[in-house]
Amino acid sequence: MQSPQTPPFDGKAFVHTLTTSPGVYRYFDADGELLYVGKAGNLKKRVGSYFLKPRMEPRIGAMVAQIARCEITVTRTEGEALLLESQLIKSLKPRYNILLRDDKSYPYIYLSGGEDYPRLAFHRGAKNLKGRFFGPYPSAFAVRESLNLMQKLFKVRQCEDSYFRNRSRPCLQHQIGRCTAPCVGLISVEDYRNDVRHAEMFLEGRSSAVIDELAAAMEKAAVELNFERAAALRDQVAALRKLQAQHHVQGASADMDVVACRIEGGMACVSVLFFRNGISLGTRDFFPRLALDAAPADVLAQFIAQYYLERPVPREIILCEAIPDQALLAQVLCEQAGHGVEIKSSVRGERARFLQMAERNAQASLTSRLASRQTLGARFDDLQKLLELAEPPRRIECFDISHTMGEATVASCVVFGPEGPEKSHYRRFNIAGITPGDDYAAMHQALTRRFRKVAAGEGAKPDVLLIDGGGGQVAQALDVLTELGVAGIQVVGVAKGPGRRAGEETLVLANSGREIHPGSASPALHLVAAVRDEAHRFAISGHRKRREKARERSILEEVPGIGARRRAALLKAFGGLAGVEAAGVEELASIKGIDRGLAERIYAALHG
């Protein structure tokens, strides 16, 4: 006997039960999938607009026809509703909402704290280290360019702490005039801290104050007849003034973002120009997922709410057009940032020029992206024909192995879809428990770890599985899939051609054992090669990180009683680990902080 069918959702009746308070509403379909998240200053009025209007836009009608359930959350203010809406959209990714796909954390310049000789460094991720963070910057290139300038201007060290503590003589950076060699005491703590203070002032945007201080110090050095010092300060002041003239943007606010949006071919591009301390930090483009028939104003409103939800907010945001709830959004961002925030869409003069730049950049990036997507679509279609698939593949995975003579073996898994690389799905596997250099065993282990989850009903299954290698590696893939009972995957080996020349690869079809030579003109082979090369790059970078981490560990770290300071003292006294290994117990015990018992333990650890 069949269960009675669930009655359709009665939107009109539901509206009569709602409050007039502000809040957030969520629509679900019959399968429980979230369709849409929205906010309202008056829930009854806003939700009623979906069910009480005689006519509505086609995209709204298509969504309303699928609604089987509605949930609401009442908030105290409309501003709270706006924040909650943005949080839910980012975390739940509803089908009909505009979604900012921006999973990357932004890079910062990090100045370490709690040290006599702090370092400047590139930083991405959680800001939980002791010290100060400057940024965020729009790209890694902008950070590295700034760090390069800082090295020329203030000569603050940028080396890793492990490298810094183990130096016995100045490095190349000192020799080319980019570091004052604090590692070997060629600069006093006081003078170094003064350089650090000037670097901080510069990063805060107070470059004029830095120039004034340095000019005063130059005059003082000249009066004291310290002409070498005066000449060095003169050159530093000249470099700062030149930099200030090159990078200061006339008409730019101290902290300002200029945002433009363009929509074409079912795709949107939002381009942002970043200005901090009156200096342009460059641009960054975003391609949010569109709701049906979304307008630029809708995209901008969702973009601003989602983008600045967890990021520092500038004092001025310039938009290419007015957005819904603009005043409310400015008020919410102001409360979040703790300072005044202006959102403007009608500007003149230099700001209008910046807006034109952002609009041109958005259009150019969108045109390029559309062309790339069309090319990628053609390649996927050609791969379907080449592999004789029923339809174009939606998910391609590729595995590769990297090691150095068996050391620090790493397997990579990269994922491509119709939109290109899906980097949030990339995975690396640190391989252990195999004979060093056994690539077959490494591939078997990586594939087993990946597809064990698929066999358990977890995670997505690829349509095409590419293996970097020939018949032997393909056999490993087939063995794993057979062992785990995973079917329906086209396994393809990518074997290098004669002379390892690009375009001459051989594709080994696992199911039939057939070999294909598509040739360098094949769009399908271009796609396969791009995926294979990305897997290769991802494996090598993971292997290098693992290898460097292993080699950074000194055997001294494994000796009980040896901390960072004692280890640094030993390495400095004997000129490195080789010198420590050559030293006897008496020589080791002569170092401050090393008693005879500890010296004997060190000697025993180093000599087995």
Automatic annotation (TrEMBL):
InterPro entries from the xrefs?
GIY-YIG_endonuc, GIY-YIG_endonuc_sf, GIY-YIG_UvrC_Cho, Hlx-hairpin-Hlx_DNA-bd_motif, RuvA_2-like, UVR_dom, UVR_dom_sf, UvrABC_protein_C
The GIY-YIG domain covers which part of the protein?
Answer: 20-98
Q: Does the keyword Zinc apply?
A: no
The cross-references to Gene3D superfamilies, in alphabetical order and at most eight, read: 5' to 3' exonuclease, C-terminal subdomain, GIY-YIG endonuclease, UVR domain, UvrC, RNAse H endonuclease domain
Which UniProt keywords are listed?
Cytoplasm, DNA damage, DNA excision, DNA repair, Excision nuclease, Hydrolase, SOS response
Location relative to the cell? Cytoplasm
Domain UVR, residue spans:
208-243
Which segments constitute the UvrC family homology region profile domain?
258-481
Gene Ontology MF annotations: hydrolase activity
Spell out the subunit comment.
Interacts with UvrB in an incision complex.
Q: Which family does it belong to?
A: Belongs to the UvrC family.
Q: Which HAMAP family match?
A: UvrC
**Record PANTHER family:** UVRABC SYSTEM PROTEIN C, UVRC/OXIDOREDUCTASE
Instruction: State the name under which the record lists this protein.
Output: UvrABC system protein C
* Species annotation: Frateuria flava
